[in-house]
Each structure stands twice: as structure tokens, then as C-alpha cells.
Amino acid sequence: MMGPMSDEPQTRTKTQTLAPRTPSPTPSGAVSRSKAPVWLTRLLMVGLVLAALNLRPAITSLGALLEEVREGLHMSGGVAGVLTSVPPLCFAIFGITAPRLARRFGPGTIVLAGMAAITAGLVIRPFTGGTAAFLAASALALMGIAVSNVLMPVIVKRYFPDRVGTMTGLYSMALALGTSLAAAATVPLTDALGGDWRTGLAVWAVLGVLAIAAWLPLVRDRGRGTAHAPAAEEKDAPAPRITRSRTAWALGCFFGLQATGAYITMGWMPQIFRDAGVSAGTAGVLLAVTMVMGVPLAFVIPKLATRMKNQGPIVVALGLCGLSGYAGLHLAPAAGAWAWALLLGVSNCAFPLALTMIGMRSRTSGGVVRLSAFAQSVGYLISIPGPTLVGTLYEHSGGWETPLTLMAGLMVPQMIVGVIAGRDRTIEDEA
């Protein structure tokens, strides 16, 4: 749609060069960006932002009202625990289906379907009559999030091949904003809307409606190859065996370890501060600070990463911030609370870096969709046991020394596999 892939042949004969320009598609099936209407480019940018805003409120809004949901549905503590571990499992299971769906229907169409699934799940689940139906509706929303997670880097690679860093930063920033906004605003919104937790959860479906409105015209404009019409390069290029790529495995492990750290931080950091004598209110604000750090840095880091051939130095810098934050939580959790919250917020920005590297480690949009599905599915599977393991260690050790040692220890392999994933090579090179 928006421009030819960066790896497409650029050589033209003299006759071709002098031939009159026509609006026909490029060999890749995408329309040159210079011939695409300005409104279409802007609408795709808006669509990316709105889609990214929808990728976390279904999760963080539930966390804010989990106690009310448990009481309202008479949900046991065990089932509530399962509910909090469902997101990464759904991301791993449903995300792996994204490449096949994208090849058949086009990535834009699947993103639109994902937004519809998120919206439907958010509308349905608060008004279900029991726990099983609530879980099923949550799974529907998570299914939409999973496929959209995988396809965001693909959309960027296909339609903005020369602006991967900028566009990845844009939607990463929107994703972080959606995460923080839902976590911070769900309870006040619920109170303002009458105090019913059902309304407080359902209100986030409004974002989904806006995203659907943005993606509908993109999908309908198939004549321009905007959101459908799989590119010829995806059909003709040999598909690399992703499981044989060392870079793909390194990216999957890096994605999984950074996700583990992020889930542990979101789930346990307030408790660490509270056990150190920090008030509950302040502990919540400290978590919000950690999460909000991802908004500006999610825009800056991808742009910086695309200007570097090797992203290893950024991986190491973020890892050292994480190590420093965990060390501070161990030595002086209350005295340096604000500093540790900031350091861990910087460390958690390994997420937009991982997304950027996914877009850089393949030459084609077809390769990116396979790599994105593989790395995110492997990564989310790796991240599942982390928060539970930390909770078990905390319960049995009676303090945070052992859990913090584990959390700091995980930063070392994260830096190692991140350096491997950050090397200047592609999965096609290794295949």
C-alpha cells in the first residue's frame, strides 16, 4: 500500500525509467507511497495508534477491579489466579495462528477482526452470568489482542519500510499509554459512572469501536493493496525454517525474559514497597511511575535502535538499569523507592526494543510475520511461570531476598540473548 519493501529490486531499465507513471501496484503488490493519497497514509497511522491503545486495557482494567469481579461472580481465589495467568497463555496459543490468517486474508483484515474480537469480549464479559462465561468472553478479547500483537510489526514493515523505528515507536508509545491509562483510570471511571464494576470494565470497548472505524476504510480499499492483497514477495519468496534460526530463538528468549520481568514488576512491585514500609497509595503511584516511563521511551528507543546496525549496546544498557533497580530494592527499598521505580521503568522498555528488532531481523514482511509469531509465542510461553514462581519464593522464604535475587539473575541471560538477537543479520541469512 504505502511503499515498496526496502529489499525489493531497485534496478530499472532506461525504458522503464522514462515510461509514464501509472497507478499500478509495485511488484510487491503494494502501491508506492508517493502515489498513495495523503489521507490514506494518515488514516493508517491513526489506525496503528488506535489498535495499539486497545492491546492492554482488557487486562489492566480487570486487574484494577479484580476484587469487585471476584465478589460479583462469587469467584474463588484459585480461579482468580488462573484468570491473571490467562493473558500470556492466550497470546502464545492464538498468536501462532496469525501468519496463516494474514496470508489468507491480509494482515489489515485480521487486525480489524482482532479489534472486533476485543470490542465484543469487552462488551460481553461484564454482563455474563457466571465465571465460565466471563472467562470465555475474556478469552475472546485476548484472542483479538494476540493476533494484533503479532501483526503490528508486520503492518509497519509492509507499509512503512523506511520508517520502521518511528512507526514502531509510535504504536509502542500508544500501547504503553493504553496500559497506563486503563490501570490508572478504571477505578475513577467506575466511580463516576455509578460505581458498578460491570460498567467500569465495559467502557473500554469505546476504544475498540474507534479502532474499528479507522480500519474499516483501510480494509475496504483493497484495490490499492492497503490491508488485503498479500504481496507477491510473500508468495514467491522462500519461507525460511524459522526454528533453525539462531536469531529467531534468541529473539524469542529475549522477548520472554523481558516479558517475565515486566509481569513480575507489575504484579509484585507494590507489595515489595509496602513490605518495606511504604504506604499503599504511594506504592501504587510508584508502579504508575514505572509504567508511565514506557510512554516517552517507547518512542525514543525504536528510533535509536534503527539507527544502529547492532542493538546489543541498548540491550545491555537496559539490562544494567534493571540490575541496578533490583539491587536498590534489595538494599534500600524505601529510601530510594523513586529511583528504583524509574530504573525499572527504563528496564521494562526492552519491550519496544524487542518489537523493533523483530521488524529489523527479516528482509520481507512475510518473514516478519513468521518471526513475530514465533518470537512472541515462544516469549509469552517463557513468561508464564515467572510471577507465580516469585510469589511461591516469597511465600516460602518469608521475604524478598530470594525473589529479588531471582529477578536480578534473570537479567543476565536476558542481556546475553538480547545481544545475540541484536546482531546485524536476518533470518533469511541463517536459512
Tell me what you see in this structure:
The chain has 431 residues and is an all-alpha fold. Helix content is 75%, strand content 0%. It contains 22 helices and no strands. The protein starts with 13 loop residues before the first helix and ends with a helix. The N terminus is likely disordered.
Q: How would you summarize what this structure contains?
A:
The protein has 431 residues and is mainly α.
Q: What features would you highlight for this structure?
A:
mainly alpha
Reconstruct the topology from this structure.
Elements: H1 14-18, H2 38-53, H3 57-64, H4 66-73, H5 77-95, H6 98-105, H7 107-124, H8 131-159, H9 164-192, H10 197-202, H11 205-220, H12 232-236, H13 246-275, H14 280-292, H15 294-306, H16 312-331, H17 337-347, H18 350-360, H19 365-383, H20 385-397, H21 401-421, H22 427-430
Helix pairs in contact: 2-9, 2-11, 3-9, 5-8, 5-19, 6-7, 6-19, 7-8, 7-11, 8-9, 8-18, 8-19, 9-15, 9-18, 13-14, 13-18, 13-19, 13-20, 13-21, 14-17, 15-18, 16-17, 16-21, 18-19, 20-21
Number of helical runs?
22
Q: Estimate the mean pLDDT confidence.
A: 83
- Share of helical residues: over 70%
Strand content: under 5%
Please give the largest β-sheet: none
What structural category do the secondary elements indicate?
mainly alpha
Principal-axes geometry comes out as: globular
